[in-house]
C-alpha cells in the first residue's frame, strides 16, 4: 500500500508539474515553428491529464480496496488476539488452580493412607452413577424426601434421575433400601458411630478410630471432588480455546484468499498460493492434549475415555478393543445404509465444526464407562466418525506408536524394489510388534476401511486424511512434515487388508505380546510387594447380594488388573534397538509355515 500511495503521489506530482508548463507568448505565433511548439505544449497538457487519470484509477481500483481490506484484516487480528489473550490468561489461572487442588487432594490421600495403610476406596456403581463410600449413596438418596414409599414413587424418582428402574434392585441388594410389605419400601437408617459408641462404651476406642478414619475419608472425597471439578473446567477451557483457534485459522484462510484475489486478479489458482504460504509458515499439525483427572487410588481410566492410554482402557474394560471404538464402528456401519455411494466413500475425509464434536465428546466422557449403543446411534454417522478421529488424535501415543515411525520409514525405503507379496508380508511382520490393544484396534479399523472403499483414488484420499492421525513422530520437524511413508503405509493397509492381517500375523502378534510379558514378569518379580502396596492399586468395589441388573456393573478392577497386566502391558524398551531382533524371530515364525 505504501508503494501504491507513493506511485499515486508521483503521478499527481508529475501531472501538476506538467500543467504548470505554460507556453511563452511568442510574437511569431503564426509561424510554422510556433505552431509545432503549441502542439508539444498540448501534448504536455494531455499527458498531465493522463497522469491525473492514472493516479485516480490507482486509488479507485487498487489503493482503496486494499485499505478497506487492511482495515478489516487488522480489526479481525486485533479482536482475535484480544480474545485469545483473555482465554489464555483464564486457562493459565485455571491451571494454577488445578495444581493447587491436585496437591491438596494428594495430600489428603497420603494422610488417609498414613493412618490406614490398607485403605481401599469403595466404588459403588448404580446405573450410570458412581459413588465413593456408602455415605455418597446416602447423600444422593436424600434428594428423595420420603422415608417410606411404594415402588411407583421410587421408580418415578429414579427415572427423573436418568436411571433405570432396575437400580432399585441394586439399592435393595446393597441394603440402602429394604422392603417392608408387598408394595412398601423404606430407607435404611445408618447408625452413626456416635450413637453406637454411646450404646457400648467398652468399644469407645475402636469407634473413635473409626470416626477419625471417616473424617479423613470425607476430607479426601471433598478434595477429590474439588480436584475433579477443576479438571473439568480446565479441559473445557482447553476445548474452547481449540475451537476459537480453528475458527480464527479458518477466517484467516478466507482473508488470505481474498487478499490474493485482491492483489492478483489474474491468478489462476489462489488456493495453491494460500497452500504455499501455509507450508512456509506452519508450526505443526493439530494434536490436542486433554487434561486428565488422575485418581490417587486407581489411575485415569475409570471416569474418562478421551486421552487415556489404550492399554489402560482395555485393561480396565477387559476387552481387546475399547468399547467406544467397537460400538462406534458398529454404529457407523449400521448408519451407512442411509448414505449414498459418494457419501460413503468420503465420510472419513469430511470434517464437522469442532464445537459440535467437543459437545458429543463431553457427553460420552460424562457417561463413561457406560457407553450405550443407543447413544451412539442417536448421533449422525458423520459425528461418530469425527468422534473416533478425535479420540485417536487425543491418545497420548498415536495408534501405530511413535516408536514405529522410524522403522516404518526404513521399511518404506527397503521395500521399494520388492515384489508386492514380499512387501505386504514385511508390513504384516512390522505391525505384529505393536502392543495388543493397538494391533486389535488397527485390525478393526482397517477391516472397516477395506470394506468401505474399493476405489484406489478414494483410498489415497483417505490415507492422506488418516496418516497423521495414525502414524506420526513424537516431535514434528520440517523434514517429517513432507514425509509420505505414513500415507503409503495407510494406503497399503486399506487396499490389502486381508493380506496383511492374516491368521498367521495375528498368532505372531499374540506370541510377541506373550514374550514381552514374560520379560516384564522376570524383571519385575522382585517388586511384586511394592506393586501390591502401590497407592494407585488400593481400590475395591463394594459388593453385595444383588438382584440381577443389566445397568449395574460390580467388578473388581484389581482382579481385572491382576489377570491382564502381565499379558497386555508392553515393556518400556527402545524399539530402535530391539526391532531387528524381534523381526528376525518373526521371520522364522512365518518361514516355518512355509
From TrEMBL:
<feature type="compositionally biased region" description="Low complexity">
    <location>
        <begin position="517"/>
        <end position="533"/>
    </location>
</feature>
<dbReference type="InterPro" id="IPR008936">
    <property type="entry name" value="Rho_GTPase_activation_prot"/>
</dbReference>
<dbReference type="GO" id="GO:0005096">
    <property type="term" value="F:GTPase activator activity"/>
</dbReference>
<dbReference type="GO" id="GO:0005737">
    <property type="term" value="C:cytoplasm"/>
</dbReference>
<feature type="domain" description="Rho-GAP">
    <location>
        <begin position="308"/>
        <end position="501"/>
    </location>
</feature>
<protein>
    <recommendedName>
        <fullName>Rho-GAP domain-containing protein</fullName>
    </recommendedName>
</protein>
<dbReference type="InterPro" id="IPR027267">
    <property type="entry name" value="AH/BAR_dom_sf"/>
</dbReference>
<dbReference type="GO" id="GO:0007010">
    <property type="term" value="P:cytoskeleton organization"/>
</dbReference>
<dbReference type="GO" id="GO:0000935">
    <property type="term" value="C:division septum"/>
</dbReference>
<feature type="coiled-coil region">
    <location>
        <begin position="81"/>
        <end position="108"/>
    </location>
</feature>
<dbReference type="InterPro" id="IPR000198">
    <property type="entry name" value="RhoGAP_dom"/>
</dbReference>
<dbReference type="GO" id="GO:0005886">
    <property type="term" value="C:plasma membrane"/>
</dbReference>
<dbReference type="Pfam" id="PF00620">
    <property type="entry name" value="RhoGAP"/>
</dbReference>
<feature type="compositionally biased region" description="Polar residues">
    <location>
        <begin position="562"/>
        <end position="572"/>
    </location>
</feature>
<dbReference type="GO" id="GO:0007264">
    <property type="term" value="P:small GTPase-mediated signal transduction"/>
</dbReference>
<feature type="region of interest" description="Disordered">
    <location>
        <begin position="512"/>
        <end position="576"/>
    </location>
</feature>
<keyword id="KW-0175">Coiled coil</keyword>
